[in-house]
Design brief:
- The chain is mainly α and about 200 residues long.
- It has a domain at about 65-190.
- The protein has helices spanning about 1-55, 65-75, 75-105, 110-145, 150-185, 190-200.
- Helix 2 packs across helix 3 and helix 4 (about 110-145) packs antiparallel against helix 5 (about 150-185).
- The longest helix has about 50 residues, at about 1-55.
- The termini are far apart.
C-alpha cells in the first residue's frame, strides 16, 4: 500500500514538474516567431519605402558614364536637376506611347488622339533640346577639367548657375503636364503602385 501511494505521488508529481518547462519552451517558440515576423515586416516595409522613393537611374542620357559620374561628383545640384529632367522625359515618352496606342486601337477617332499627342510631342521636343544643350556644356566641363582641373573648375563656377536656371525653366514648363500623371498615379492602390514600380524596373 505504501509502495502504491509512493508511485501515485510520483505519477501525480511528474506533470506538475514538467508543466512549467513545457510552458517556458512554448513561450520561447512564440517569442522567436514574433521576432521573425517583426523582422520580416520591417524588411518588407523598408523595401517598399525604398522602391517608392528611390531615384530611378537616368535613362535618356547621352553622356558617357565617365561624364555622368563627373557631373554627379563635381556638380551634385546640377546632377539632381538633370535627373529630374530625365524623369520628365521618361514620363512624357511613356504618355506619348500610350496615346499613340489608343489612336491605333480606335482609328476612327484618330484625330482625338492626334490632338493630345501633339501637346505632349511639343513638350518632348523642348525637353530634348534642353537636354542636348545641357549635355553639351557638361561635356565641355568634363574635358576642360581633364585637361586642366583649375581651368575646368573656373568654367564650372562661371556657368553652373545659368545651367541650373535653364533646368528649372524646363521643369517648370513640363510639370503642368506630368503632374496630371502623378495625380493619377497617387490615386492608385498601393499594391498597384508597387507593381507599376516593379514593371518599370523604379525604384
Amino acid at each position: 500500500m505504501a509502495k502504491k501511494k509512493k508511485n501515485m505521488e510520483q505519477d501525480s508529481g511528474t506533470p506538475d514538474a514538467a508543466s512549467p518547462k513545457k510552458k517556458k519552451k512554448v513561450f520561447k517558440i512564440l517569442l522567436i516567431v514574433v521576432l521573425i515576423s517583426l523582422t520580416l515586416s520591417g524588411l518588407g516595409a523598408g523595401g517598399v519605402y525604398y522602391l517608392m522613393t528611390r531615384t530611378p537611374p537616368i535613362a535618356k542620357s547621352t553622356l558617357t558614364p565617365e561624364a555622368l559620374s563627373f557631373l554627379e561628383k563635381q556638380l551634385p545640384e546640377l546632377y539632381s536637376g538633370y535627373a529630374l529632367l530625365d524623369q520628365e522625359m521618361v514620363m512624357t515618352d511613356n504618355e506619348m506611347i500610350r496615346i499613340a496606342k489608343i489612336g491605333e486601337t480606335f482609328p476612327e477617332q484618330q484625330k482625338i488622339a492626334d490632338t493630345e499627342y501633339k501637346i505632349w510631342e511639343t513638350s518632348m521636343k523642348a525637353l530634348q533640346k534642353g537636354q542636348a544643350d545641357f549635355e553639351k556644356e557638361i561635356q565641355v566641363f568634363f574635358v576642360s577639367y581633364q585637361v586642366n582641373p583649375e581651368t575646368g573648375k573656373t568654367l564650372m563656377d562661371e556657368k553652373k548657375d545659368t545651367l541650373k536656371q535653364n533646368l528649372d525653366g524646363l521643369l517648370a514648363a513640363s510639370k503642368p503636364l506630368t503632374d496630371k500623371l502623378r495625380e493619377i498615379e497617387a490615386k492608385k492602390p498601393m499594391p498597384q503602385r508597387i507593381l507599376d514600380q516593379l514593371s518599370k524596373g523604379k525604384p
